[in-house]
Amino acid sequence: MKDLQLKNCRLDGRYDVRERLGRGSYAEIYLAEDFLASPESSHKTVVIKALNVFMQNDLDLDLERTLVENFQNEAIALDRVRHPNIISRLGHGTAQDLRGTVFHYLVLEYLPGGDLARFCQNNDLTLLSALDYLEQVSAGLAKAHQNDIIHRDIKPQNLLLTTDHKIVKIADFGVARVTISDNPITRVGTNIYAPPEHSPMLAGETQSLVFSELTPAADIYSLAKTAFVLITGESPRYFANQPITELPHSMRRKNWAGELVKVLNKATQNDSRRRQQTVNEFWKDLSQISKLAESPDGRAATRVTTELSSIPKAHIAAGFTPNAPIKPKFNTSSEMRINPDLLKTPKHPLVVNVKKTDTFAQPIQQNPVISTPPINEYIKSEAERTIKPRRSFLRNAATFIIILGLFAGSLFATYNYLVGRGFPLLSGFATKQKMGTAITDINLRPEPTAKNEPIGLITVNSRVKILQKDDNWYEVVITEYGDPKTDSAAADRGWAYGKYIKIDE
Predict the structure, then answer these.
(1) What is the pLDDT of residue 270?
(2) Which of 227, 267, 293, 422 has its CA 20 to 30 A from that of 453?
(3) Model confidence pTM above 0.70
């Protein structure tokens, strides 16, 4: 296996990769710090999910296309179901690691509270605490189903918590079905949480289950098995591939035990048509259990405040925004015209010179810097390397075109310089100032460079007026803050990196 070489490097001039959190068959998960994010930003620490199609050494083009399409679908699913209780995608990119391996990556929000599986192992949840988490998951799943997204792998390990363990978010949409269709259902999910329709071999046992359409009831089945874990603290392994019919002995005398078994039994029926058909319907049944929740002295609670809403409500954590980043378009190596053999023994330097390519990229304690170089500049096909010299008249024509291009370029550069200084030449930034919206928290700096201290902060969703442009930097005036301004002494005018400002059409 060939792991990516990313640790202690700066990716794309922005993300300082600290450590690898885990790996799968074709993906690696890294913890990183966003070099450009404000120290106060909720997304200063992020997760990099890197797709490494070369991990198994031999590259199968059909398999690679499937993996890239699935990775693309994961990004699309996350953007389509943008919700406070679903993990957010913050960005994406394509790069090369230190050994020349090309990989696509997604930038996801980091949830340091761990997953619910581990949290339940170390903590005994009360019934109301478990229902509170289940309400949040139900709210997120309901949003996904409204947008024709079936998660297909709901389980406690894919439910992540914030630092204070109050907010839970659904993660890992890697096997999600982006559209509901009659296509054959592939085997996904974990056995003890996966519904029978995920396995065609089990369809015959349901007798009446003679169709293969995937519906929201598949996620409801997995959610019910997850609810069993959160409420009882035990694994539903005994009920793998079959309905839940009872609770552990320690809970069978609870005054809510009978009603809970009825709700979970219906949700885990083998025939998907006999389950609750929507998440809201499942949550409505489950929320009724809260009315029977016991107080610490063992008596049934009668206060209305212990009752939960019959419609699951979202719980919002700091840093959430409904606005999705730019939509990614990932290509296979053949579409990028990369020769796989050359990637194994690259002849060109893959850690490019910082000064020539990226103003922001700086060495991290003498470690290399990873950027996103133009692949075709470094990797050429055999045909490109064996092209014979052109005839003299073609060389003369090429020389003329180059000279003409340099002349036109100098004129264009002069025009941009004058426009950038406010001279009213033609329409553009000089004569018609544009407006934009910050798509993340951005540091406001006194000059168009990251090598100075910030003088202010443009919070996400803030509105700005663009005064002039200098390369990739905009001089802006904040006209409306996305979040209330906390530092009255902070500047409202300065330079911001234009990549994180969405210009109005």
Answers:
(1) 92
(2) 422
(3) no
DSSP annotation of 257 reads: H
Residue 483 phi, psi (nearest 5):
-120, 155
**DSSP character at residue 492:** S
Order of strands, sheet of 45-51, starting from the edge strand that comes earlier in the sequence: 89-96, 102-109, 45-51, 27-34, 15-23, 10-11, 369-370
Task: Spell out, as residue ranges, where the chain has pLDDT lower than 70.
Answer: 1, 55-59, 178-190, 199-212, 294-308, 337-393, 414-432
What long-range pairs does 349-353 form, CB within 8 A, spacing at least 24?
350/96, 350/97, 350/98, 350/99, 350/100, 350/378, 351/98
Distance, in Å, from the CA atom of 363 to the CA atom of 9, rounded to the nearest integer, reads 8
What phi and psi, each to the nearest 5 degrees, are found at residue 360?
Answer: -85, -25
Residue 439, both tokens: 């798509």
pLDDT at 420: 53
Q: What is the pLDDT of residue 32?
A: 95
Q: Which residues, other chains included, contact 205 with Cβ-Cβ below 8 Å and sequence gap of 6+?
A: 196, 270
pLDDT at 202: 56
Q: What pLDDT was estimated at residue 118?
A: 94
pLDDT in tens, 393-446: 677 777 788 888 788 777 777 666 555 554 545 444 444 578 999 888 888 999
Beta-sheet strand order (sheet of 434-438): 493-497, 473-480, 463-470, 434-438, 501-503
**Alpha carbon of 60 to those of 25, 95, 334: distances in Å?**
14, 20, 11
d(CA 96, CA 98): 7
> What single string gives the DSSP state of each residue in 141-161?
HHHHHHTT-B----SGGGEEE
80-105 core/surface letters (b: 16 or more CB in 10 A; e: else): bbbbbbbbbbbbbbbbbbbebbbbbb
Please state the separation of Cα 70 from the chain's center in Å: 13
In whole angstroms, give the CA distance from residue 237 to residue 146: 30
Q: Report whether 7 contacts 48 (CB < 8 A).
A: no
Residue carrying structure tokens 């919070």: 459
State the amino acid at position 288 in one-letter form: Q
Strands 10-11 and 369-370: parallel
